[in-house]
Specification:
Strand content of chain B: 15-25%
Oligomer: heterodimer
Number of domains of chain A: 4
CATH topology of chain B: Pyruvate-ferredoxin Oxidoreductase, domain 3
CATH architecture of chain B: 3-Layer(aba) Sandwich
Strand content of chain A: 15-25%
Helix content of chain A: 25-40%
Distance between the termini of chain A: 50 Å
CATH superfamily of chain B: Pyruvate-ferredoxin oxidoreductase, PFOR, domain III
CATH class of the largest domain in chain A: Alpha Beta
Shape of chain B: globular
Largest interface: A-B, 68 and 66 residues
Helix content of chain B: 40-55%
Number of strands of chain B: 6
Number of strands of chain A: 22
Number of helices of chain B: 8
Structural class of chain B: alpha/beta
CATH class of chain B: Alpha Beta
């Protein structure tokens, strides 16, 4: 054993490596991305790792390897599991041979996601056991136990960390390479009665799974990570009849809320499904009331209600369903403290509070939550005369080529009736003012198909579907085939910066590189689109505005599906080395067109003139091309 | 001993590297370290923070009114995190604003001067850092994070020693950068009035 300071996601990777992982696959997505990256970086040499084109592909690769006896892991964010649902539902029926752990990272808040879905609920739906770690150290140990469990019960297992575990850093104890489990895959053994899903197999497997999961409710009651903390002495009288049930990072918040002071009986649930009912009964014994401190869905709350119903217990179960916990959004130590204070009837005066109540919310979105400072805390701030804080929604970086692509389309379509369907990636930020170039965003790849639906209702609309290169490969190609086959009048725009930028620059099929470091043949989006049958597939440099505007105007009016590929590298990944742009204050007429049209963070006002923050400028020259009087010059992409 | 530290700023300013240096220094001093930081969408020019807990703690997040020290890379962001400061806690903040695009295009307003005034009114143990001036004197415009760590050292609330921070710098940076960064680290130790 030795100590390492690691992020939760790194800990999960190191734990899986220590457990004898042989095949790992996944698709990038915050907050899960670093798991697979760490497996690749710390690979002892015998692990096959891949970025799959999407989560479904990743899970199927892992399923094949697991049926061949290998220990496998698939990583994704919560919405990625939606994509991988099809294979997972059936795989649970078929079962696995080599241990298989799906790491599905949930994102309460959500901080970087479309939904606040709870993978614990998904476990119950798919009948797949779920493990829910509370800390970085626990995630490291739990992933190893999950492999054992998966192999013992021949089922895929979900490890479900949330953002604060994934992205929390902690100094933890990890195994030395000599302590790693050595696993050897037997290979695929043909047996069509086992590995081929048919109705006959399904009904038999379904029955067996339900029986197993009922038994696991007992078995998991003895799992050391499901536990009861007895009341601490000296116990305040009012704590005698109440209990707290919690899970994951919320367990840490709860313990921090008491900070070593006496607490009532606490149930910590590490396996929300199958729910450790026997242990829960022990916990409920003698209690009048329980509060469930949960994030996302009221999973434990519902399980306890079920337990009380099944066993005719007269215990009041409180939580999200009773309004004792907020229904949506991320929890924090303060949210938990406030909920416990109300529930336990503690005197608020005894809690030492600091300076003010809540920080203002930076992205300007109303969140009805004390921790984000829009309701009660807003009043507190007013009372202390807090000056108006800067409003900072995330924006496209200075010099981002997506800004130029969006602006070219916007200029070309000025005065026309348009639809700008967006998608998932950095370019979703094209929705922000002043660009305002994203009218819809649903899920990975949806923009291309949604645009088709809009033109069925409004044929006169010029519809554009913007999609990034990685998203195009992940789930855009079927939409393109659908559009071509059904002859939809849309313009498919691929914003190709040759990387998966938002999640931290992972390689994908268009980059010619793999996570293992191999150089492979690139998949060309142009060739894919031409192979589908598209006649117009135009590749443009978005930083050449005049040419782009002309081309967009011409292409948009062609009938059928046509494609534009705006290709220019991500400026964060491939830092441009050219000179930066400068404003000549004598020429600047202070019309602010550059600032108001582009919203580039490098453009600022200085002494009544436009100016450029040299530390941010990349020399993309977009502002030079937009300035009506030629006051900006000097930028360039190359030395 | 335990210490709670909040690092805050705007995505891209280097708050993460600063927190990594302190974490490294604390581990050299055999302390248990937990941190939580912003990763993902907000890194693109949004408000970002790192919470760091040295010593005993259960969760990586700090509760309101429990931070011993706030290290702010941007005055408005420092004010945003002020509710986390405990009574009598210390604040180190750069005075140089990062103007948000929303303010540049007239959708919101931001007066950074008000932030400094507010901090002076609210916080007794305060070091305001004139980063442009200090970094010009040091001769390294990119050493804002190390300069702020130096100012934090001067408050006595950072929980790690200068020696450990220097060692962490040596482990993290290439040798030609050592002298310049050590100068930045010592800037506020030699002239604590700031």
């Amino acid at each position: 054993m030795h100590t390492e300071f690691v992020m939760g996601n790194q800990a999960i990777a190191l734990g899986a490596i220590a457990a004898g992982l042989q095949v790992a696959a996944g698709y990038p997505g915050t907050p899960s991305t670093e798991i697979l990256e760490t497996v690749a970086k710390r690979n002892p040499g015998n692990i096959y790792v891949e970025w799959s084109v999407n989560e479904k592909a990743g899970l199927e690769v892992a399923a094949g390897a697991s049926l061949s006896g290998a220990r496998t892991m698939v990583t994704m964010k919560q919405v990625g599991l939606n994509v991988a649902t099809d294979p997972l539902m059936s795989l649970e029926y078929i079962g696995v041979k080599g241990g298989m752990v799906l790491v599905v990272a949930d994102d309460p808040g959500p901080i970087s996601s479309q939904t606040e879905q709870d993978t614990r609920t998904f476990g119950k739906y798919s009948k797949v056991p779920v493990f829910d770690p509370s800390s970085v150290q626990e995630a490291y140990e739990m992933v190893q136990e999950a492999f054992e469990f998966s192999e013992k019960y021949h089922t895929p297992v979900i490890l479900r960390p949330t953002t604060r575990v994934d992205h929390g850093y902690e100094s933890i104890q990890v195994k030395d390479p000599e302590e790693y489990t050595v696993s050897k895959a037997e290979g695929f053994v043909k047996d069509s009665s086992k590995w081929v899903i048919f109705p006959k197999l399904s009904v038999r497997a379904h029955g067996a799974i339900e029986k197993r999961n009922l038994e696991l409710m007992d078995t998991l009651s003895g799992y050391q990570r499901n536990f009861i903390l007895p009341v601490t002495e000296p116990m305040p009288e009012r704590y005698r009849k109440v209990g707290i049930a919690t899970h994951g990072i919320n367990y840490a918040y709860t313990m921090d809320a008491f900070d070593g002071k006496p607490h009532p009986r606490i149930l910590r649930v590490a396996t929300p499904f199958p729910f450790p009912e026997k242990l829960a009964l022990e916990f409920l014994d003698g209690l009048d009331e329980v509060v469930c401190i949960e994030e996302l869905d009221p999973v434990i709350e519902r399980a306890l209600l079920e337990t009380c119903g099944r066993h005719h217990l007269d215990v009041k179960i409180c939580g999200k369903l009773t309004g004792d916990m907020k229904a949506a959004g991320e929890n924090s130590v303060d949210v938990v403290k406030d909920a416990l204070r109300v529930f336990l009837g503690d005197d608020p005066e005894t809690e030492g509070k600091g300076n003010a109540d809540g920080p203002a919310n930076a992205d300007g979105v109303e969140i009805p939550d004390g921790s984000n400072g829009t309701d009660a805390s807003g009043k507190a701030e007013e009372a202390r005369d807090v000056p108006p804080l800067p409003v900072r929604p995330p924006v496209l970086c200075a010099g981002c080529p997506h800004r130029a692509s969006f602006y070219a389309v916007k200029m070309a379509m000025k005065g026309r009736k348009t639809l700008y369907a967006g998608d998932i990636g950095c370019y979703t930020l094209g929705n922000a003012q002043p660009l305002d170039m994203t009218d819809t965003c649903l899920c990975m790849g949806a923009g291309i198909t949604m645009a088709q639906g809009v033109v069925r209702v409004e044929p006169e609309t010029r519809a554009f579907a913007f999609v990034g290169d990685s998203t195009f490969f992940a789930s855009g190609i079927t939409g393109a085939v659908n559009a071509f086959y059904n002859q939809a009048d849309i313009t498919l725009v691929i914003l190709d910066n040759s990387t998966t930028a938002m999640t931290g620059h992972q390689p994908h099929p268009g980059t010619g590189k793999t996570i293992m470091g191999d150089i492979v043949e690139k998949v060309s989006p142009e060739k894919v689109l031409r192979a589908i049958g598209l006649k117009t597939v135009e590749t443009l440099d978005p930083l050449d505005q005049e040419h782009c505007i002309e081309e967009v105007r011409r292409i948009a009016d062609e009938p059928g599906v046509k494609a534009i590929i705006f290709r220019s590298p991500c400026v964060v990944k491939d830092k441009p080395k050219g000179p930066h742009s400068k404003v000549d204050p004598d020429k600047c007429i202070s019309c602010w067109k550059c600032i108001k049209e582009l919203g580039c963070p490098a453009l600022i006002k200085d002494g009544g003139k436009a100016a450029i923050d040299d530390s941010q400028c990349t020399g993309c020259t977009l502002c030079e091309q937009v300035c009506p009087v030629g006051a900006i010059s000097g930028g360039g992409r190359n030395e | 001993m335990s210490k709670n530290i909040v690092f805050c700023g705007v995505g891209g300013q280097g708050t993460v590297l600063a927190s990594k240096l302190v974490a490294k220094a604390a581990m050299m001093e055999q302390m248990h370290v937990r941190t939580a930081e912003t990763i993902g969408m907000a890194q693109r020019g949004g408000s970002v923070f790192s919470h760091m807990r040295l010593g005993e703690a259960d969760s990586p997040l700090i509760g309101k009114g429990e931070a011993d020290l706030i290290i702010g890379f941007e005055p408005g962001e420092t004010v945003r995190q002020l509710p986390y400061l405990k009574k009598g806690g210390a604040v180190v903040s750069s005075l140089k604003p990062v103007m948000p695009v929303s303010a540049m295009i007239g959708q919101s307003s931001y007066d950074a001067g008000q932030m400094a005034e507010y901090l002076k009114k609210q916080v007794e143990h305060l070091v305001l850092v004139d980063a442009d001036k200090a970094l010009a004197e040091i001769g390294n415009p990119k050493a804002l994070n190390v300069l702020l760590l130096g100012a934090a050292l001067a408050t006595g609330e950072i929980g790690v020693s200068r020696e450990s921070l220097v060692e962490a710098l040596h482990e993290t940076l290439k040798q030609p950068l050592w002298e310049m960064n050590e100068k930045a680290l010592s800037y506020y130790l030699s002239s604590p009035e700031g």
